């Protein structure tokens, strides 16, 4: 990044000539996200409303382009790490979010769980400890007062407030369990999102189940980690008048989880009447259809 060149371009953003501005904007939008601090400094130093508005729009577009590129790279990556995918979702609303800070917050929760564990516990006993730490001690719960709010899908926000929706709480739960050596995976159940505790001997190298009977039990994190059997899921599907599908009972991949997060955001912003944000999310969702 040529800092002098960037500063010179920024200085021209208040030019009243539309052609000059268009040319400068085009040049700045080709630069990497690292130029944002320079743009922010210029915004703070100016009292010109037009200049500030132009800078704000350029910053937003650069940051959106950066998420687009990172998400595309994540979708093309071999492992598609769940935490990093959720981090990219956060970056849409919180561009300054830190993956290091997210890991630190998760590490604190993981430590609290680990201190209660021992090697003689059964799977169910281990899950009861996870539930106790997350829901009794740290009070994670459903955001009942603002259930459709977009922030319920940003795990950076959920880790701060301890309130979220079934998907975000399940993502945090799954990440913690898997870091502690427990094979707990998401299940893309409509109108809810739950987890499945898997017999890890039945998981192949691509983290796909060799046999659907490998699901030992289900977990409903939004209901304080209640343990469920297949019959309870079947009853829920019937109660919600859903057409039964085997995918409602089997673990889904991380791409499905992150795509659902973005879909939730699109619906949330649409409900709030934030059409421009909905359109931006739809453009990010289009990347999933290219896979």
UniProtKB/TrEMBL annotation:
InterPro entries: SirB1_N. Residues 102-262 form the Protein SirB1 N-terminal domain. PANTHER family: HEMIMETHYLATED DNA-BINDING DOMAIN-CONTAINING PROTEIN, SI:DKEY-261L7.2. Belongs to the UPF0162 family. This is Transglutaminase family protein. It comes from Carboxylicivirga sediminis.
């Amino acid at each position: 990044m040529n800092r002098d060149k960037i500063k010179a371009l920024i200085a021209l953003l208040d030019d009243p000539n539309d052609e000059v501005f268009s040319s400068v904007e085009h040049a700045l939008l080709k630069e990497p996200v690292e130029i944002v601090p320079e743009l922010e400094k210029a915004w703070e130093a100016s009292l010109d409303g037009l200049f500030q508005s132009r800078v704000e729009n350029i910053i937003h577009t650069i940051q959106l382009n950066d998420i687009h590129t990172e998400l595309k790279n994540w979708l093309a990556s071999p492992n598609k790490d769940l935490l990093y995918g959720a981090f990219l979702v956060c970056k849409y609303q919180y561009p300054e979010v830190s993956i290091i800070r997210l890991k630190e917050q998760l590490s604190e929760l993981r430590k609290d769980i680990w201190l209660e564990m021992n090697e003689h516990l059964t799977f169910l006993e281990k899950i009861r400890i996870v539930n106790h730490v997350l829901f009794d001690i740290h009070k994670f719960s459903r955001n009942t007062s603002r259930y459709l709010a977009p922030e319920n899908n940003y795990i950076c926000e959920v880790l701060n407030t301890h309130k979220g929706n079934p998907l975000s709480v399940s993502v945090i739960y799954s990440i913690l369990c898997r870091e502690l050596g427990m094979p707990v995976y998401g299940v893309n159940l409509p109108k809810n999102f739950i987890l499945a505790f898997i017999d890890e001997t039945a998981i192949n190298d691509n983290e796909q189940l060799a046999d659907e009977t490998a699901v030992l039990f289900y977990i409903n994190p939004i209901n304080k980690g209640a343990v469920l059997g297949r019959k309870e899921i079947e009853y829920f599907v019937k109660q919600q008048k859903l057409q039964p599908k085997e995918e409602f009972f089997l673990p889904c991949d991380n791409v499905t989880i992150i795509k659902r997060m973005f879909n939730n955001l699109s619906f949330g912003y649409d409900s709030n009447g934030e059409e421009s944000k909905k359109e931006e999310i739809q453009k990010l969702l289009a990347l999933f259809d290219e896979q």
